[in-house]
Amino acid sequence: MWETFIIQPFINVLLLIYQYLGQNFGIAIILFTILIRLVTYPLTAKQIKSSRAMQDMNSDPEWIKIQEKYKGEREKLAQEQMRFYQEKGISPFSSCLPTLMQFPLILGLYQSIIRTMAQTPMQMFELTRLVYPGSFWFKTDLLPLNSRFLWMNLGQPDLINVNFLPFAIPIMAVVVAVTSYLQSRLMTPPASQPTASGTPDQSAQMTKMMSIYMPLLMGYLAYTLASGLALYFVISNIAGIAQYAIMGNVHWENIMFWKKRTDTAEKSKK
Amino acid sequence: MTKKTFILIILAVLAVMLLSSCAGGNALAAATSWPGITADPEAGIAYLSAGPHVFALTTKNGTLAWRYPETPARNITFYAAPTVAGNLIIAGDYRKSVHAIDALDGREAWIFADARDRFIASAAFASDTIIAPSADFNIYAINMNGNLNYKIETNQINWASAVTDGSTVYAPSMDHNVYAFDANSGNERWVTNVGGAVAAAPALENGVFYIATLGQEVIALNTSDGSIRWRADAEDYVWSAPSVKDGLLLVINASGTILALDTENGSQLWTATSGGNVTASAAFYEDGFIVVTHNLDIIALDFDGAKIWTRSANISAGSFTSTPVIVDDLIIIPVTQSADKWVIAYDLNGNEVWSFTPEN
After folding, report:
1. Which of A76, A60, A110, A109 is closest to A221 using CA atoms?
2. Contact at 8 Å (CB) between B252 and B286?
3. pLDDT in tens, chain B (360 residues)
4. How far apart are CA A66 and CA B216, in angstroms?
5. Residue B247 contacts residue B263 (beta carbons within 8 Å)
6. How far apart are CA B69 and CA A53, in angstroms?
7. Is B117 helix (H, G, I), strand (E, B) or coil?
8. With an 8 Å Cβ cutoff, is B33 touching chain A?
């Protein structure tokens, strides 16, 4: 079912894009990633909206009062929280549900890119069996797909040898790590106020940790995987930032380190 | 680090591992394919490239003579059928090297490591030169000491083995071209565009060679100047090399249709169906030829396309995707992605004689 309803249509769309728009697999990956992001945009928009409502709740004076009132009474606080959600029309699951719904599409996109970048006869044989029979648009002389894009062979990990260096440079891994970091920083709201008890916000700490570890992990993945997937990660990150920007939810101040330093310096002067 | 942070990081690591496993392991670099087998009838040995090893099996009973390397090497797998080159067995790996192995004891003679991508095609052997097409867009000519003689640059990956008449090498490429060059010097004789990628070796007979393309065509070319004699419709992709014997050309397309063509003009003599997907070539024997299918069927047909017998392999999983070899009146077939038997040998009546399952 997964194969029939997700992978096969995705692969055929990918090949259709390849056929008519440049006959380059790098361009096909970029356009297909953007296409999937556009298709899932309503879900993303809903998710962003719900997340924003949840964030706004944290700074709502009424909610802060409730937290202070029931400090130490966990069960009661939970009941009040549910009541507050109902009153304000907030659904705590509405921010994660769109993400869950998008997950199969993103995974399908990822898998279909891998399958289309057939690197062995067995993989290419399987790919040809997935092309819809009688596809008027798929010309057999297109095979093998052109997997050279910019300096990369999209089927291989990206490592560039420079004459004066004794080691190869994984350019795409660095780009993936940087764009992942930027994405997570730009999408993260500024740290909220300390909690009623005066302790630092744990979720903010977690987010901060994640914004460091995830880009490193993604960079490592891009270093070991085929550069076609690294290209997909980069485009996906950029498209993610663009979607948040369209919704006016990008926190540029999070990456303006110089501004923060100036503010801190000014504060300390005062 | 709080407990929640720790859990979150573990979840992130798991997500990365999931994505990584979806990619099929290490960068598609550890990709698998169908195994390859070659037989040396004089030595009574069949050489099998399958996963981490090249195995030497006695054809009579399937006992293991040796395996190379003795201990599996990280990230090195073999799938291209080995080539017998004098006392050496030549096997390209799926990383980027060509290995020369002593045919007697399985010891490494040398390793050629100048390529930048995997060797999917089997090497050809002519005039003490090993012709090894690589997926790095080059065809390497290596001497018997493992040094590079010359290389021919192509415009795409190379998955098809070359053939040689002793002095000239004919090498099809996935770039839609067939390259003919002098085996000793590498000097170009001619290049012909055949209009489709070629993933399987050509068949050569009487100054004509025959190729089947992923452009769904069968094409006959003159070896003298590369001119095209005729083209015929293959009705589907063709992954297997054409087989030719006494004027009968057999081509099996991916859907399993067996096309018998007249070598003179490409006209269809007859067709037969195998009932499954096919990526293996037909293997000739005295009474006819053998076809194996992905759904583990072995079919013996006579030269008019009539079925002599059909058998199904007695294994729980796997497929027949590689061309069998027929030696010592045995049909020796490698099994792709099998849980138990990696090779099965049948007699010419389709009865299982022996099987080979490697020890850990």
Report:
1. A110
2. no
3. 555 556 656 665 556 555 554 444 333 444 678 999 999 999 999 999 999 999 999 999 999 999 999 999 888 999 999 999 999 999 999 999 999 999 999 999 999 999 999 999 999 998 899 999 999 999 999 999 999 999 999 999 999 999 999 899 999 999 999 999 999 999 999 999 999 999 999 999 999 999 999 999 999 999 999 999 999 999 999 999 999 999 999 999 999 999 999 999 999 999 999 999 999 999 999 999 999 999 999 999 999 999 999 999 989 899 999 999 999 999 999 999 888 899 999 999 999 999 999 987
4. 73
5. yes
6. 61
7. coil
8. yes
Nearest CA in chain B to A128: B237
Helix, coil or strand: residue A64 = helix
Quote the CA–CA distance of B277 and B266 in Å, as a whole number. Answer: 23
Q: What is the rounded distance in angstroms from the CA atom of residue B50 to the CA atom of residue B32? A: 9
Distance separating alpha carbons of residues A118 and A25, to the nearest angstrom: 11
Residue A222 to residue B203: CA distance in whole angstroms: 42
Residues of B in contact with A122 (CB under 8 A): 31-34, 321, 336
B327: phi then psi, degrees, rounded to nearest 5:
-150, 145
Determine the Cα–Cα distance for residues B298 and B274; give it in Å rounded to an integer.
9
- Is the minimum CB–CB distance between B10 and chain A shorter than 8 Å? no
Residue type, B281: S
Q: Tokens at residue B55, please?
A: 């195995």
Say if CB B289 and CB B252 are below 8 A apart.
no
Closest alpha carbon to B280 in B323, B246, B316, B331:
B323
Taking alpha carbons only, the member of B195, B198, B239 closest to residue B34 is B239
Measured distance CA(B34)–CA(B16) in Å, rounded: 29
E strands, A104-251, where?
148-149, 152-153, 160-161, 168-169
**B-chain residues near A156 (CB < 8 A):** 27-29, 117
Of A136, A137, A128, A109, the residue nearest A29 (C-alpha): A109
**SS3 (DSSP) at B333:** strand
Dig out the tokens for B177 from the structure: 């071209």
Cβ contact B28–A214 (<8 Å) = no
Element (H, E) at B219: strand B217-222
CA A139 to chain centre: 33
For residues A74 and A82, what is the distance between their CA atoms, to the nearest angstrom? 12
Cis peptide before A144 (omega within 30 of 0): yes
Inter-chain residue contact B254 with A125, CB threshold 8 Å: yes
Burial class of residue A152 in the structure, from the number of CB atoms within 10 Å of its CB (0-12 exposed, 13-18 middle, 19+ buried): buried
> pTM of the predicted model, to two decimals?
0.82
Dihedral over Cα of A225, A230, A232, A237: its sign: positive
Dihedral, CA of residue A58, residue A60, residue A62 and residue A65, to nearest 10: 50
- The letter for the amino acid at A241 is I
Residue B3 has phi, psi (to 5 degrees) of -65, -40
Residue B282 structure tokens = 């037909």
Nearest-Å Rg of the Cα atoms of chain A is: 23
Question: Is the omega angle on the peptide bond into residue B69 within 30 degrees of 0, that is, cis?
Answer: yes
Best of A10, A114, A140, A212 to disrupt the B interface (most B CBs within 10 Å) is A140
